[in-house]
Amino acid sequence: MIILKGIAKQYAGIAAVQDVNLTVSEGSIFGIIGKSGAGKSTLLRIISLLERPDAGEVYYGTERADTLRGKALLMRRRKMGMIFQNFNLLGSRNVTGNIAYPLEIAGLPKKQIERRVNELLDMVSIGDKRKARLRELSGGQKQRVAIARALAANPEVLFCDEATSALDPQTTRSILALIKELHERLNITVVLITHQMAVIRAVCDEVAVLDGGRIVEGGAVQTVFDSPKTKAAKELVYA
């Protein structure tokens, strides 16, 4: 379980996130949605411990995480995987090399890395692309590589930052289906950031609507879809 209490963050005196209280249930697919500038990326960086809040507390289970330093912070981050809109893959490496990279950084033996990479290639259905260069892949295939890399170290939480925004509708559906399948197979918690309500509807259990750095509405996805209460939620649902 991830718990945020009173989270606030400013940049140059401008509030990016204000008084955010949020609970992400273990094993859920939790969506955070908002328009551009709503504070989604800032909130994601705080939840994933890439940035510290100016105020408030972040908990993973009973452990307060926003105050972690050094090795303790590194160990907590190793329990997280992240996929991005622009894939963030290494152009100098082929598919296998990209997936193996975090395992190499962790110092795992070569044979163990090879076994794990083969498992992941099969898991995301790109076993036939193991030696391909990135320029030979479609956008959907690159995102599958990115997902495999994010799962390499068996994370407890998978963060998805606008992971389908650069993809066409058909590829988006296939990537969302893969994320849902992996969630069920691995019993992993997924936190999904998006500006697309269709993405939330397709895979999420719960959703929080972010507007002006604040959570203005939240709850079960179907409830928010059936009867959005705030202007921000209505604009997203009825867009």
What is this structure's SSE topology?
Elements: E1 2-11, E2 14-24, E3 29-33, H1 40-47, E4 55-60, E5 63-64, H2 70-77, E6 80-84, H3 95-105, H4 110-123, H5 139-151, E7 157-161, H6 169-186, E8 189-194, H7 197-203, E9 206-211, E10 214-220, H8 221-226, H9 231-237
Parallel strand pairs: 3-8, 3-9, 6-7, 7-8
Antiparallel strand pairs: 1-2, 1-4, 4-5, 9-10
Helix pairs in contact: 3-4, 3-5, 4-5, 5-6
General description of the model:
By secondary structure, the protein is an alpha/beta fold. The chain folds into 2 domains: 25-52 and 70-79 and 156-239, P-loop containing nucleotide triphosphate hydrolases (Rossmann fold, 3-Layer(aba) Sandwich); 88-154, no CATH class. 38% of the residues lie in helices and 26% in strands. The chain contains 9 helices and 10 strands. It has helices at 40-47, 70-77, 95-105, 110-123, 139-151, 169-186, 197-203, 221-226, 231-237; strands at 2-11, 14-24, 29-33, 55-60, 63-64, 80-84, 157-161, 189-194, 206-211, 214-220. It has a 6-stranded mixed sheet with strand order 6-7-8-3-9-10, with helices on both faces. A hairpin with a 2-residue loop joins strand 1 (2-11) and strand 2 (14-24). Helix 3 (95-105) crosses helix 4 and helix 3 runs parallel beside helix 5 (139-151). It is globular. The model has no long low-confidence stretch (mean pLDDT 93).
